[in-house]
Each structure stands twice: as structure tokens, then as C-alpha cells.
Amino acid sequence: MEIRKITESITGVGVRDTQIDLFEGIYDVPEGMLYNSYVIKDNLTAVVDSVAENFGAEWLENISKVTDKVDYLIVQHVEPDHSANVKLLTDKFPDAKVVASAKAFDFIKQFYGADYSDRRVVVKEGDTLDLGTHKLRFVGAPMVHWPEVIMTYDTTDKAFFSADAFGKFGELEGDEWACEARRYYFGIVGKYGAQVQELLKKASALDIKMILPLHGPILTENLGYYLGLYNTWSSYGVESEGVAIAYTSVYGNTKRTVEKLARLLEAKGCPKVAVSDLARDDMAEAVEDAFRYGKIILATTTYNNDIFPFMREFIADLTERNFQKKTIGIIENGTWAPNAAKKIKAAFENSKDITFTQTTVTLKSALNEASEAQLERLADEILA
Ligand code: FEO
Q1: How buried is residue 246: exposed, middle or buried, by Cβ count under 10 Å (0-12/13-18/19+)?
Q2: Each residue's pLDDT tens digit, 42-86
Q3: How many other C-beta atoms lie within 10 A of the C-beta of residue 251?
Q4: Span from the CA of 81 to the centroid of ligand 1 (angstroms)
Q5: Which atom of ligand 1 is nearest to the CA of 24?
Q6: Same fold, 4-234 and 240-383
């Protein structure tokens, strides 16, 4: 990836990964990933974070176009997509000091066997690093997305280096940001809403002119939009009016019922119905939709006297991410002993502020007159 001058002193030296199949071994990234890294050039020069394993040579070449000396390597986050080439840089620049939290040094040792005892600068919340004109202040951000994370605020350029926060899959900018940023957020950080709220509180006390994340585009305009979305997401609020429907279907009857419900909802004025087939569509897309809207319908088959496997996985994806403050309606199907609704309700028993609709649609194999009436009632209730 070409280097990018961001301010007089800050240059992006990250890389683009177009070959990756699954990010973090789980997420589809059809548009690839950016691993951002930054050089802050001053009397003393700092590099902020490294890049993923396969891109060390390209990264060093990018750095060499900007500076021939490195005084500090700031490691904000030790997940290997950002730390895999720390040692490459410290070998090339033996005088460079490594700046990170105490826990980050533990993790660096675990991953790479290096402890940097003779060249480490341990920093925590509120500590500063003076590069000359640029004074950097560190912001603790545990669990956004790992416990060792520190973020960095450049008080001179008002630039906030936000580690994984405000990152996204792919690299599209502008209006497209929210789509892949939301899937990234709920997939990767969704569980840690409380910690993101803490971070937003700290960020609100800073005069931020630009956000420089480790993935995706640099954000320089309309920052209130991005901060507002992060506030909604991390407080498990409703981002968009509408209904998300997630379903599994074995022989097509549950699917036909879902399609009928979607038409009913739209006819009754629902502004958006987002339907996901959990067996075939991207699970992470279904997860982001479940968090995006305030109301969801789960439609599934009873299977081995439990919930059909893809739905079971989906519900676990939600509950382990602290899914809360939602209304859920259920469509269950079972030829001789439909039992999925009971199992679904039990699966959410430890989730906060979940309301189930009064109406549950029970199919015994296929829609009939009685279940059609239930479907109509469910549509009215979920829209009420
Ligand atoms: Fe981009 Fe949590 O690593």
C-alpha cells in the first residue's frame, strides 16, 4: 500500500491484505483488510504499531521512505495482526525503545519470546511521551479489544490513534463505513460495550480532529457521526427502525413462513425487514442486524428436541456478546413435538432486558389456518 501523508508530521505506513480468507480465523473479508501503522516524525520519531506477519518487508520499506531512524515503537495492541513484526523493527533499529503497557510486554513475551527489559518504556493511562513538538498522551482502553490495549492521543495534531476501535473490515470509505464497521464492531468488540462506553467518556474530554484506527480508513471529517454510532452500538441501543428476521429451514416451510411474515411486516409499514438464512448467509451479518434493530424474529426447527444447530450457534453469538434491550418474537416448527420456543427462551434467560412477544407462532410441519392467524398477530405485536 502506498504511504499516506496525514499531517506534516504523521504518515500512514500500513499495508493492504487482499489475500486473506478469514480475518481472525472466523470473519469473511471479501474486501480484504488494512493493517494501519503510523510514523510520527519529530525530534524523536515514533512508529505506532506494526502489521500482520506476511507484510513485514513491505512495512519496513514504507517506513524507510519516511524516516531513517526510529526512536520509539509504540505497541498499542499485541494481537498479531498488529504486533507480528515488532521484532523485525526492533532488530533493524536496535536503539529504538518499545513503548507499551505492562500487560502488553507480558503478551509480547508470550508470543515472541522477547522481553525488551533493556529498552522498554512501560506506560499507563495519562502517561505522556515527548517527541519534541509532539506530546503524546496515553489512554487506557482495556478490552477494546484485548486487556493490554492503550491508545495514543497526539496533543499537537489532535490525532487520536484508536487501535482497533473505529476500525472496519475492507477499506471502503464514506457512506460505506458503517456497514463493515458495524459487522466488525459487533463481531469483535460487541461483548465489551461497557468498556467502549468508558473509552468514549475519555475521548469526549479530548479535542479530537482525526481518528487513526488500525483497520480501515482514517477518519477526518464528521467525527460526531462515528462517535455517535459507537455510542449507540456500545450502549446496545436501536440504530435503525425495522425488524431483523433470522431463520433456519429444513424443508422450506419455515422459510416460506418467514417470507410471508416479511411481506406482512412490509405491508403493515415496517420501514425495513432484514432477513438472514443462518445456514447460508454470513453469520456475522446476521449478528450485526440483530444488534442494529430493536426487534428480532427467530424462526427455527426443533431438532433433537433442541434448537436447530445454526440457530443455536447464532443465539450463542448473541448472548456471549451481551445481547440486551431487544424484543424477540419466535416462530418454531416441529412435526411431532415442537419445542424450539421453550429452548430459545431458556437460552436468553441470562440476557438483560429481553422481552418476548406474547405471540409465538407454532408450525406443525407447515403453515395452516391457525398458524397463519398467529403469524398475523405476531406481525401486529412486533410492530406495536
Ligand atoms: Fe486488529 Fe484486536 O486486532
Answers
A1: buried
A2: 999 999 999 999 999 999 999 999 999 999 999 999 999 999 999
A3: 12
A4: 6
A5: 3
A6: no
51 lines ligand 1 (CB under 6 A): no
Q: Is the pTM of this model over 0.90?
A: yes
Q: How far is the CA of 164 from the centre of ligand 1 (A)?
A: 5
For the chain, which residues make up each domain, given as ranges?
A: 4-234, 240-383
Q: What is the pLDDT of residues 229-261, one digit of tens each?
A: 999 999 999 999 999 999 999 999 999 999 999
What crossing angle do the helices spanning 309-319 and 283-292 adopt, rounded to 10°? 50
| Owner of C-alpha cell 467525527 | 223
Q: Report the amino acid identity of residue 336.
A: W
Rounded to 10°, the helix 177-184/283-292 angle is 100
298: CB partners within 8 A, 6+ apart = 246, 247, 311, 314, 315, 328, 329, 330, 331, 344
Ligand 1 centre distance from Cα of residue 104 (Å) = 13
Q: Which CATH number fits domain 4-234: 3.60.15.10, 3.20.20.70, 3.90.550.10, 3.30.1360.40?
A: 3.60.15.10
Report whether CATH 3.40.50.360 matches the domain 240-383: yes
d(CA 260, CA 238): 25
Our answer on whether the CB atom of 168 is closer than 6 Å to any ligand 1 atom is no
- Strands 46-48 and 38-40, sheet pairing: antiparallel
Residue type, 267: A
